[in-house]
Amino acid sequence: MLVLATGGGKSFAAVCDSGQATQEDLNRCAWEDYQKADEEMKAVLKQLMDKVSPKGRSKLRSVQKKWVAYRDDQSAFNAMGSVGGTVHPMAVYEWMTDLTKRQTEVLRMQLTCEEGVVVCGRQ
């Protein structure tokens, strides 16, 4: 996985929105967007972990660990066309952000399932 320095807590979003960002700035913005998406997913995951049974927590931990590996591998594959270019970190992080947001919605659906909905884990 690619890792970028975050610039000492400085947000690069304003720079990226300015229209005068360098590729390095855009890479950092993509990293920040991914970090925000990942934190949101972790918060929803924690809520779901607190809600499910011990057996459900064990299964959810296992599934989530496999999902993270899938997300990272899928993002790397999806961004293969940019390997070697300065845009590559941004491409990878944009894919990671997208897939993480999708997973957050899946977890949120499990968290808010209503009684009787058969597609919910109901742990």
Overview of the structural elements:
- The protein is mainly alpha-helical.
- It has a single domain, classed as Substrate Binding Domain Of Dnak, Chain:A, Domain 2.
- It has four helices and no strands.
- The chain has helices at 13-17, 23-51, 54-78, 88-111.
- Residues 3-9 have low confidence and may be disordered.
Structural class: mainly alpha
Low-pLDDT windows of residues: 3-9
User: What is the total number of structural domains?
Assistant: 1
Question: Distance N terminus to C terminus?
Answer: 32 Å
Largest sheet: none
In one word, what is the shape? elongated
Q: What is CATH's topology name?
A: Substrate Binding Domain Of Dnak, Chain:A, Domain 2
The quaternary structure here is single chain
- Overall mean confidence score, pLDDT: 87
Order of helices and strands: HHHH
- Number of alpha- plus pi-helical segments: 4
Q: Radius of gyration in whole Å, from Cα? A: 17 Å
The CATH architecture designation is Up-down Bundle
Helicity, as a percent range: 55-70%
Q: How many beta-strand segments?
A: 0
